[in-house]
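Record 1 of the preview.
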Amino acid sequence: MPRLLDFIWHLRGSVRLGDRVDNTAVLERVERMLEHQRKPTIERGQQSVIFEEPLWSNFWGSNWRATVIYDHGRFWIDQDLEGRRLRYDLRSLHALIICLFGALMFFAIGSLGGDIIQGLAFAALAFAWLYGMNIVLAVLRVPALIRRSVGTV
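->
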């Protein structure tokens, strides 16, 4: 899939790491954070942690978790000219698909009277509300959660 539009279902970023904490400790903190967020780690390397949890696997769990919308993610430590960074790439593809189905349902309801434009308006509003609001909340909450969890500078 071209990376041109995958920003719609990916949250990418990085956090600068200080010299006080070594890589192992940082990744342990990431794993603890994922455990609190109910995101099971599926792979742990020397420089990375990967989690995977389908959106529907914990449907009745807490929906107030910061990472609830993300079904797959990777955290890794990278060294660049400015120092060490914890980089992350989180995917919300399952939520995107579920919200598209919800928008399709609203399109069908809005088009019942034969008005396709009204159906499209309902679908767009439903998608913006269902998916857009979840993404806005995640974009605000997840980077702050990661910074707090790893104890950055």
